[in-house]
Backbone:
């Protein structure tokens, strides 16, 4: 779609509902709230919803947000590649034809909405929204700029990852012209951890095991460990990058217990290995640097299977 | 100085020695090697030196570098604010008049060289060199771009810190047009740690103490701990950011033992507190967010003094 067609849609309708994906991250929330504030500044009614609510972690984007009371007539999903990612709280929008427009940057987008605008080469949905807003010629306020910057920064690991492009940096340069206190945003997004999270990382890192000449590192998170830590289970998400942080490791494996004898495996690799091929061997899949699978058996059996395969491919 | 005056100097001389600061970081080395390669591409002779040698960590910048054999006639220091920072290995260049030109971004630069070019508002010395190189109209090769990107990325915490400006992002956008494999540079600079470092962080984090309603966090690194870890002492540098990484902490204190009853204190604060004022109370000083001091006494006495003062100011 052309940006002008999207702006026409904003102008033509009056009451918008903005859908964001479950387990919300900085990009879906940053995109959602930026769009909401932009539409409200156009004199429209607009709300943002999320199946899991809005986490405290990102509250600087919605500290002054209040829900408006109206019956939506136009539904927009942002950063949502697949309707199932809307989550159980937004089940009714997962039906065919329920979403009017989807704005996204995932090449894997399922084109489930009536209209879809996908730019696969763009680092963040927030960056696409920034281009649309600029194209409109309308004022971008400080809070909109802050939401957009947050979306871009979080989806690129603060401009660290491969998905960062020159246009990502240029968008950041322009957004810094607004009053966004980007250093504080980045501190909250990248440097601050809860006490519980610090404790978990400390325990898990202490138990990290190195194999195959230190080229493979492995952490195992059992249900027993999770319960004994006294920390909320959500804090155990996103530990999979830890094994690959050790120098020389090319294959990082995180084993997380789901039930008795059922383990979820998360694999991270450097450019020396294909994580999706490794996980494909166990019936899983994913991306070239990050993939997953599920293996049944005791922890010792699961480890042995993984290490046997790792030994074959390394 | 005008960029053209600096380029004139490059053109007028033939045999350059480039000095970088001790305990080298990505910016001094990135600036030094970028300048060295740029001068060699101009047909000049040029070498880089460092008091502490060139660490493996940054070897992607100098894997193909070989020292040239010549008698230098023009001495340039890069990213060096004070001659003492050249270190004991470059003692003879600390004398007055020994350095011909200093290119730096520290406002605190001591103007010790015959000519000094300082731009205090620029995030990295490498960013200044990039401007000079562009101004010359000469070709910037991939390895030069990679060195410059590394200097800029490392001095800004990958565009995370307050010193990042729009021009920093624009420089990064332009440098990404070269073949620099920036994602791999960033992985090495920001995500990878040695096994020893992982072990130390794990131990130190496990012993972190919280005080004053969790608004103050403290870690203590004793000589006994350093010796018992079996890890090189250099790996114990730069741990001072750990206490401030805990959510809600506004005052992070790191106590490191120098000798019996002599402790070096590193303080990090959020925008709620002035670290230099806190350390000034103990005869130290520094910046608003990062400062230090030295306190004598037993570890328990040192902790008690720090906590007493922290209780008064928090």
Residues:
């Amino acid at each position: 779609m052309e940006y002008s067609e999207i702006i026409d849609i904003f102008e033509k309708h009056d009451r918008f509902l903005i859908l964001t994906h479950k387990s919300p991250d900085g990009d879906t929330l940053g995109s959602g709230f930026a769009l909401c504030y932009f539409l409200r500044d156009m004199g429209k009614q607009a709300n943002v919803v999320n199946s899991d609510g809005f986490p405290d972690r990102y509250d600087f984007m919605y500290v002054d947000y209040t829900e408006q009371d109206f019956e939506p007539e136009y539904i927009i999903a942002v950063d949502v590649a697949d309707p199932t990612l809307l989550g159980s709280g937004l089940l009714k929008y997962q039906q065919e034809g329920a979403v009017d427009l989807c704005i996204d940057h995932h090449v894997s987008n399922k084109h489930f909405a009536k209209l879809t605008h996908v730019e696969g080469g763009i680092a963040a949905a927030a960056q696409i929204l920034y281009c649309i807003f600029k194209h409109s010629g309308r004022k971008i306020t400080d809070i909109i700029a802050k939401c957009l910057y947050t979306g871009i920064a979080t989806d690129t690991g603060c401009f660290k990852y491969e998905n960062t492009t020159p246009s990502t940096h240029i968008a950041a340069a322009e957004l810094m012209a607004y009053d966004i206190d980007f250093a504080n945003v980045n501190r909250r997004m990248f440097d601050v951890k809860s006490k519980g999270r610090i404790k978990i990382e400390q325990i898990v890192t202490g138990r990290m095991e190195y194999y195959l000449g230190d080229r493979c590192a492995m952490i195992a998170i059992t249900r027993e460990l999770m319960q004994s830590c006294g920390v909320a289970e959500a804090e155990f998400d996103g530990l999979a990058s830890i094994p690959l942080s050790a120098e020389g490791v090319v294959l990082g494996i995180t084993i997380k217990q789901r039930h008795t004898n059922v383990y979820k495996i998360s694999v991270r690799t450097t450019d020396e290995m294909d994580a999706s091929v490794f996980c494909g061997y166990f019936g899983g899949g994913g991306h070239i640097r990050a993939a997953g699978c599920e293996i049944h058996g005791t922890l010792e059996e699961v480890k042995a299977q993984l290490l046997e395969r790792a030994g074959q491919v390394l």
In short: Chain A has two domains: 3-190, 195-313. The two ends of chain A are 45 Å apart (CA to CA). Residues 3-190 of chain A form a domain with the inorganic pyrophosphatase (n-terminal core) fold (CATH 3.90.1640.10).
